[in-house]
């Protein structure tokens, strides 16, 4: 028997309301963003790389002058990394229509194939990385973001990540590791001093430093004297591949402020707990980091002769487009402070620009809108 028309109209209305709710949920799930800020005295060129199975963001590389900020939208479930390049000159790529020649290098640090837009190419180490896996946006228990700052691929700039949500931990590395970097790890800027600090894995290519081969498990790959230097200076950042316990954090935030370099002089930071303690006299500005004593595997000791540099064997996925952030630990949100530095507040509109969502996200919303427009006339047809 055919259902009464009076039953069909409410049923169809419920169906349409469910579609609207799903569409709104999809829009809300895609509302997370990354506000990337430049507090450095120099121009930087931030870049992004999506992990396997997630789309590249609307931009994968751009110029950011001192004092400027850019907000980049990210869809729910997005996974990837953000870093900053320094000392870049893209004039060669511009002259060739934005396509860099094979093997070209445009930046002193963090280069991605000589292009402004990295387009799925990762950073050439060394580079300080912000890594994140966003929640799926379904609102269920455990629907959390996992994030960290990593020195596994080396260091080029200080960076701090601040979730814009209550009760979530700030993480990062505010120390100037270029000043305290062991000589054998230093990257010379060609007259400009040390511009980056390599990881021991990249510098020497040995399995014990790369957590590969016979050292490919947490039980066999342990901290070294080199990773200890990184950890002492930046206790919340990853110092080696299995440094999960004190370096991975969880949150559910609508925005992450990713700030490169330290706050400008005169910024109001009173009452804010710093990420690291202030350096003591004679500690070379490394936030309390001092070279290990003699016998501690020789890191930073002039009498130590490291093996000759070789091609890195497995630098934990550095620069590989199939990179996936390290797996989260069960309870790693207890490390660090929930304080948010005062100088990390939302930049003024005068210094901030927005990047629109990618075309894929726009098409998704347009399809839902079209479907709703087609269904709404059916409601009136069945009702009347």
Automatic annotation (TrEMBL):
<keyword id="KW-0732">Signal</keyword>
<feature type="signal peptide">
    <location>
        <begin position="1"/>
        <end position="29"/>
    </location>
</feature>
<feature type="compositionally biased region" description="Polar residues">
    <location>
        <begin position="314"/>
        <end position="323"/>
    </location>
</feature>
<feature type="compositionally biased region" description="Polar residues">
    <location>
        <begin position="330"/>
        <end position="351"/>
    </location>
</feature>
<dbReference type="InterPro" id="IPR037176">
    <property type="entry name" value="Osmotin/thaumatin-like_sf"/>
</dbReference>
<feature type="compositionally biased region" description="Polar residues">
    <location>
        <begin position="272"/>
        <end position="283"/>
    </location>
</feature>
<protein>
    <recommendedName>
        <fullName>Thaumatin-like protein</fullName>
    </recommendedName>
</protein>
<dbReference type="Pfam" id="PF00314">
    <property type="entry name" value="Thaumatin"/>
</dbReference>
<feature type="region of interest" description="Disordered">
    <location>
        <begin position="272"/>
        <end position="360"/>
    </location>
</feature>
<dbReference type="InterPro" id="IPR001938">
    <property type="entry name" value="Thaumatin"/>
</dbReference>
């Amino acid at each position: 028997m055919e259902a009464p028309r009076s039953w069909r109209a409410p049923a169809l209305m419920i169906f349409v309301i469910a579609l609207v709710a799903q569409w709104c949920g999809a829009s809300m799930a895609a509302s997370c963003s990354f506000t990337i800020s430049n507090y450095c005295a120099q121009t930087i060129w931030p870049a992004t790389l999506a992990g396997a199975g997630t789309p590249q963001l609307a931009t994968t590389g751009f110029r950011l002058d001192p004092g400027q900020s850019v907000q980049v939208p990210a869809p729910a479930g997005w996974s990837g990394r953000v870093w900053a390049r320094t000392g870049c000159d893209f004039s060669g790529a511009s002259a060739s229509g934005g396509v860099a020649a094979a093997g070209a290098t445009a930046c002193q640090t963090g280069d991605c194939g000589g292009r402004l837009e990295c387009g799925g190419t990762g950073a050439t180490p060394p580079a300080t990385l912000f890594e994140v896996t966003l929640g799926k946006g379904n609102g269920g228990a455990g629907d959390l973001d996992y994030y960290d700052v990593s020195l596994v691929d080396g260091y080029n700039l200080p960076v701090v990540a601040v979730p814009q949500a209550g009760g979530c931990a700030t993480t990062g590395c505010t120390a100037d590791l270029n000043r305290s970097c062991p000589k054998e790890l230093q990257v010379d800027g060609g007259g400009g001093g040390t511009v980056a600090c390599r990881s021991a894995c990249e510098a020497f290519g040995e399995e014990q430093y790369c957590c590969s081969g016979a050292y490919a498990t947490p039980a066999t790959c342990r901290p070294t004297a080199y990773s200890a230097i990184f950890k002492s200076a930046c206790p919340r950042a990853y110092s080696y591949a299995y440094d999960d316990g004190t370096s991975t954090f969880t949150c559910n935030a609508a925005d992450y402020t990713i700030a490169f370099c330290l706050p400008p002089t005169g910024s109001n930071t009173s009452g804010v707990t710093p990420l690291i303690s202030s350096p003591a006299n004679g500690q070379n500005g490394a936030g309390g980091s001092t070279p290990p004593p003699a016998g501690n595997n020789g890191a930073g000791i002039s009498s130590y002769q490291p093996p000759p540099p070789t091609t890195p064997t497995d630098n934990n996925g550095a620069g590989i487009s199939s990179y996936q952030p390290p797996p989260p630990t069960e309870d790693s949100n207890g490390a660090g402070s929930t304080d948010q530095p005062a100088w990390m507040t939302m930049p003024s509109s005068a210094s901030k620009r927005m990047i629109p969502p990618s075309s894929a996200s726009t098409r998704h919303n347009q399809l839902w809108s079209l479907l709703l427009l087609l269904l709404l006339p059916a409601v009136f047809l069945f009702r009347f």
